[in-house]
Amino acid sequence: MHHANHFYGHAHVMAQYCGLDVDPAPRILGYLQHGWNIGDGLAPGTPYAEGSPLFLWSDQTRRRAWSLGRRNTVVTGAPFAYLLRIEPEPEDTPPREGTIWYPFHGWEAQEVKGDHRRLIEQIRDVEDGPVTICLYWQEFQTARVRRVYERAGFRVICHGYRGQWWRKTDKQFLYNQLAELRRHKRVASNRLTSAVFYGTVAGCEPAVYGDPMVLHAEDPTFGGQARIRRQWPEMHGAQVDLAVARHIANEELGMDYVFSPEVVMELFGWTAVRDRLAEQAAGLADDIPSAQPLAGVEHTGAHR
């Protein structure tokens, strides 16, 4: 199905969770939400094959999708929730220190415009420990942006390339992100994003502050930043209530909706892949098929 299912190595994380040692990861028979959003789980403008399953992060997103006429919806939780099951935090992890800061970024079709030097001043006013700036791959490759933060004395990193059209996906993206989050005491951004929620469930103290910047031709369909600040005011500020933030993050990432590997494989159409891998291990087969739908299995309206 849609190539966005493989963004950030999501399909690879889910395949590893299911014990499917296949590269590339099998295609998911449906649309897997690839980032936190305030709509129906699909990125604005995503072509949608009517009736195809939507695998969504949270029940709140499922309800929004339902209100927009999306009936075949399943709340599976975010791939990051599964990664936490795959990679539990080691007991001997060194003490956390400092802040990992995610400046709001654009993507291939939309650029972000804003004053990075002003943002640096705001970060210095708030953070009292070492700061790691994590840039999206485009901003990281653009020396003009990266050097502004490097010259400010910050450590500047990138988790990897998101991938596009099933090519050049960094399968370690989420693993890299989790490892970095676990190094830091705080996670912050100038907009409420997936990274802030990831950091919160990974043990960081979250914060959202600073110039939110402007995304070129930003889609206002679902209310944009004004709605986000109205609906999630508890997540905004240089200091937020940690208990409240963790509750919200758990809900938005669907931490209570993590399925067993067997159920995930059934939902994604991966049981044929599992069976062929077993046959191959037994010396009975030589190739691994793409995912195939299960005859007679319906998921319409399922959310648990």
Summarize the structure.
The protein is an alpha/beta fold and 304 residues long. It has helices spanning 10-17, 59-67, 79-86, 116-126, 137-141, 143-151, 173-181, 194-201, 224-231, 242-252, 261-268, 271-281, and strands at 31-32, 54-56, 73-75, 99-102, 112-113, 131-134, 155-157, 186-189, 205-208, 214-215.
Question: How would you describe this structure to a colleague?
Answer:
The chain is an alpha/beta fold. It folds into 2 domains: about 5-80 and about 255-280, no CATH class; about 100-245, Rossmann fold (3-Layer(aba) Sandwich), CATH 3.40.50. It contains 12 helices and 10 strands. The protein has a 5-stranded parallel β-sheet with strand order 7-6-4-8-9, with helices on both faces. A 3-stranded parallel β-sheet has the order 1-2-3, covered by helices on one side. Helix 8 (about 195-200) links the parallel strand 8 (about 185-190) and strand 9. Helix 1 (about 10-15) crosses helix 3 and helix 8 crosses helix 10 (about 240-250). It is globular and about 60 Å long. The model is unreliable at about 290-304 (pLDDT under 50).
List the helices and strands and how they pair.
Elements lengths: L9 H8 L13 E2 L21 E3 L2 H9 L5 E3 L3 H8 L12 E4 L9 E2 L2 H11 L4 E4 L2 H5 L1 H9 L3 E3 L15 H9 L4 E4 L4 H8 L3 E4 L5 E2 L8 H8 L10 H11 L8 H8 L2 H11 L23
Parallel strand pairs: 1-2, 2-3, 4-6, 4-8, 6-7, 8-9
Antiparallel strand pairs: 5-10
Helix pairs in contact: 1-3, 8-10
Note the main attributes of this structure:
304 residues; alpha/beta; Rossmann fold; five-stranded parallel beta sheet
